């Protein structure tokens, strides 16, 4: 079938784009071989093909030959190995058109448009060349008698070159799509550690490998003179670094990361590949990742683009953090204003904040109100709860500090604090687009004295019409008030306090929130000591 004939210098042009001399270091590294699938029902054809092409190298990569003896076996291998570059495919096997049916399955069922398919037939009459080329998505059609060693060499190299070009386009398309999706995800993260973990995850997705990775920042200088590296996130073999931040056993890695910081650029020195990222506010990061092979030009280009998106996403995170800090400062200032006349309420609102967060988390664990207990809600509810009594700035001292029960007229004045607080915070919240601490604060201030059965104040709302934030703080506020000394009462015991709250489950309080509090008390999981 294929006479023993070696290649000659006339075909050197086929492989003339080998790595340049400057890449000799990279040439020494292990490279993934090109996968070539031979599908033929004749064992002799497999043996002859293997002998003819096993030593071929293209772009400093050898061949990994896979063998299938039927169209069904070929399909299984194609499904298992999505990176096969070339299929040398017989037409007539278990049926006269088995090879043609396999072509259709590869292109349509597997959706693989990049693999190059060369049909080889010993019975050209069963599948006329023009008809096959027109009707099937193949890349070449040869009779087995045509494929000398020389012709097979030419066919393999040309097919690998075409596959590489197709793969470059497809990898670029998929990589850019992953970058857009991944960077979009990064814009929704709220903390630096989350951001760092997201970066490692997206780099792994872009390269389509599971890998070890670590994201660091420089944090001063160690006594030894070596830059101190702070690990923000780590995966795989580097996970221990995220716990102890100790590079003692990874000094080469530490030196490579420090080099990227010094040179302020990406370094590709496999296995020490580094991405250098600098944000607009001057914060610098280095990401080390270790794919099992040296990166090709397409992968490097994609990562360069991703670096730009990472920088923008971090700037967004920084601005979000600054905005959030400004909002928190506003909340604390308003709470301090309300507490200015009463030094005892400071500890009360801190306990309210802690227990509100704990109750929200418990409700989420219980599976209650999943649509309301969003990430945004969980992040803001505790801080917003400290504004529950901000309206008391409008309450006269003789009523606010009266050591005893209020009469009917005084009660009316006192109850106005809910409306006052709601109006103050609602007006302020309208100056911020979207949901903010002030938004939840307005809900809580206006609704934490409403009762579940509709007998509270100021609007006599009932059940689910009362915002969940206010229903949580309603329980927390009473719980803390009963347990601690007030101008008009001595502290109650935990048993009496819980009895009081549980007796009002379904009337004054939301039953599910009462149950969440009961679980925290019963399991001794309150977020503060009772004598705080």
UniProtKB/TrEMBL annotation:
Q: Which organism is it from?
A: Paludibacterium paludis
Query: Which residues are modified to 4-aspartylphosphate?
Result: 90
Checking PANTHER family in the record gives: 3'3'-CGAMP-SPECIFIC PHOSPHODIESTERASE 2, CYCLIC DI-GMP PHOSPHODIESTERASE TM_0186-RELATED
> Which is one Pfam family of this protein?
Response_reg
Molecular function as annotated in GO: phosphoric diester hydrolase activity
Q: Which GO terms describe its biological process?
A: phosphorelay signal transduction system
* Composition-biased stretches (Acidic residues): 9-21
* Top-rank taxon, per record: Bacteria
Q: Could you confirm whether the keyword Transport appears in this record?
A: no
Instruction: Give all residue intervals belonging to the HD-GYP domain.
Output: 323-532
Which Gene3D superfamilies does UniProt cross-reference here? 3.40.50.2300, Hypothetical protein af1432
Protein name, entry field: Transcriptional regulator
Q: Where is this region: Disordered?
A: 1-28
Q: Domain (Response regulatory): give its ranges.
A: 35-159
Q: Give UniProt keywords alphabetically.
A: Phosphoprotein
Organism lineage string:
Bacteria, Pseudomonadati, Pseudomonadota, Betaproteobacteria, Neisseriales
Cross-referenced InterPro entries:
CheY-like_superfamily, Cyclic_di-GMP/3'3'-cGAMP_PDE, DUF3369, HD/PDEase_dom, HD_GYP_dom, Sig_transdc_resp-reg_receiver
